[in-house]
Amino acid sequence: MATLPFSATCTPSKHSVSRSILRSSFIDFKCRGRRSKLFIVRTPRLSYSRSNLSVKNVASDQKQQLEESNAEQASLDTFVPDSATIASSIKYHAEFTPSFSPEDFEPSKAFYATAESVRDMLIINWNATYNYYEKLNAKQAYYLSMEFLQGRALLNAIEDVAREEPDAALGNGGLGRLASCFLDSLATLNYPAWGYGLRYKYGLFKQHITKDGQEEVAESWLEMGSPWEIARNDVSYPVKFHGEVISEPDGSKNWVGGENVIAVAYDVPIPGYKTETTINLRLWSTKVAPEEFDLRAFNAGDHARAYAAIKNAEKICYILYPGDESIEGKTLRLKQQYTLCSASLQDIIARYEKRSGEPVNWKKFPDKVAVQMNDTHPTLCIPELIRILMDVKGLSWKEAWHITQRTVAYTNHTVLPEALEKWSLELMQELLPRHIQIVRMINEELIHTIIAEYGTNDLTLLHQKLKQMRILDNIELPESVVKLLNIPEESYAVEPVKDADITDEEIQTADEENQSEEQDTEEKIEITFEPDPTQPKLVRMANLCVAGGHAVNGVAAIHSEIVKNEVFNDFYELWPEKFQNKTNGVTPRRWIRFCNPVLSRIITKWTGTEEWVTNTEQLAILRKFADNEDLQSEWREAKRRNKIKVASFIKEKTGYIVSPDAMFDVQVKRIHEYKRQLLNIMGIVYRYKKMKEMNPEERKASFVPRVCIFGGKAFATYVQAKRIVKFITDVGATINHDQDIGDLLKVVFVPDYNVSVAEVLISGSELSQHISTAGMEASGTSNMKFAMNGCILIGTLDGANVEIREEVGEENFFLLGARAHEIAGLRKERAEGKFVPDPRFEEVKEYVRSGVFGLYNYEDLMGSLEGNEGYGRGDYFLVGKDFPSYIECQEKVDEAYRDQKKWTKMSILNAAGSYKFSSDRTIHEYARDIWRIDPAVLP
After folding, report:
1. Is 669 in the active site?
2. What does pTM read for this prediction?
């Protein structure tokens, strides 16, 4: 969220107020047993007026409509809050908003009262933005995502008041944080757009680190309510599951019976930076109608039966990504995805109808609406939009299909074909029977398109294309296709039959004439279109996204090339115009301006402008001063101040005391084998072992002091990832209590990593690790945040690392490991038993097995790095292969850090070269190339 329009502090004794502030108001409250004051300081003007609306980026007919509207609205007043107004509002909410008892004004109450007063002012701009868009009737973009990792919203409140705000638990990692950065940029750049998501009651989970490793408990972010959200009880839509589809006499379809829930809207205003535009994040919660409560059963004592429907509805929005090992878990996940898609599309269509008037011209729907699917989770948007257009609005199949294809676009976030989302046909048939009918129609349409492109002469080629591209996998071919291919009805198998007059010897002779004499004759492979009864029948969601949308984009240059050449190569050959690259970005408002105010002031001073906050190209000016001793001195001092904050934070969260004089080496992200936290901690074990083999003087001469910081959550059912967390914490417990090592090496795992934790760690980091197996990270966004804050990266040529290295300079990036194009060959080499591990790698594994880090049995973890193949073995992520390169690269890091002048220059050049990675640039590209929307600036 962008910076909100006021500042506050509850500890004025620690924080001086700028002399430029002439007047301020304050509220007394008790803070940790002492009297304190909440200061409300004079702020930039927050105002709006609907009089004399200026018109920008609109068509001439729309201008005329707005001019007429201007005359009607000319008498409306402008709202300009000042410090006294804000203080009065806070006092009002503290006394009359019934969130807390009317006792001492504790920090929690101070936060809620303050947040609610700010929210009230945001609603004014939110309403103005909404009304302006309605009158403008411009094309709008709608961003659908299962995650929005917002972080704290009261950005300018500090100390105890701010810490009372919990992070909104609506996301897990980069996917959700990207969505939130996009909303910030959309609002700041004045694009007409909304976000849609789910209002998870418990989010993902709160992570506790114990002696047994990671433990998960329910997140309590909504326990006291959220002061930012606005319940829209008048905005609700029915969502149906199960039931049956009835064919009416006129040929239309009617989905009846089953389970009915209601999706209710909760709105969160998203303000832009230095603009009055305030867009909306609409989150859906689920409930049932009161009549679904079985009063008779309740009175009869069968209480579980009485509220079964209520619990079934509510649990849809309990947890982000519920475990899907069971059929119940799978069903719940699919319910979540459909709820997001159905409620959002019903809302989008209702708003379109309201703006359009009567009669509604559905052909213009794609000219007014752009729907972006953030990964495959919202894929059901495609059949749901077709269902509404056909079954509710009465359009034909062809009309609905054409409208949907022009409306929907898909962002891909994975390079792993096996990770592309697939659903059981049987489960989807049971839960969403009408949608399976529509998916079958789309699948049939796609198959006919493939046949029209490649013909039926080469059945081998056609079979290969259908195998890769069909939406319904391992399903019988549609009847129309069977007839077209002239396949015998009793069998879909197509087996080439030899001519009875041609002998095997003659066949071999003919082959030898066309090929080398050494080449043996191969048996002709049976081509079959018949389903395999031993394999599951699946719905391939990514294929549905590509077929059903007009644009497919990757999120980094290397990723987009892999998408075109590997993941969706067959689709790319068919529709090359659909595929694009949109390299991710992050908002500089939160990730420099707010989280690193000390560095922000330095950047403003040396660039000579604060425009870099909204135009990051200004950061490149820093390159001119990279060798300037004054800038370097200020830069180092800013970093040290931030490191002191990190050290204090670590002590508070873990109890460990670390030295701010050591290098702060950070890897914070979701715990996953491909992200290779295991490579990092194995490198630390090697470093520790070498230290233990030296005397104190040798250690000091050989190693730069380091604090190695980890953070991130392992998914609750991901056993191997949780083993890695346990291993990191065990290594840390041993090293941190080793008096021989002291401050030369510390290992810290920060629990419950979230946006607020990231804001502290990123600003104080010096080296950041982005060491995923090459070709497996789509983009990454934390690498961008670290670079913006002058942190130097160590990493593979993967995801956005490739582009970051190009922008900051190869000499300012520590590169290691195999390249993406080498990975398949290296895995093949491993499977063939040809891999020879580095002796240092074997040494580390044996050291771990010796029990030096405790009694826990790490055989399963170490064993995953051994063998040639098999589940959980064979070192699929090439930790062993890249280990020597990693160790040698870390030696170069030590060498560079010893020369602080050189290191500081590298740090400055990283920040200067990060300008490309603003989400503002990314959003401009989406708006121009995919959504085709224009800014609409409130006058």
Report:
1. yes
2. 0.87
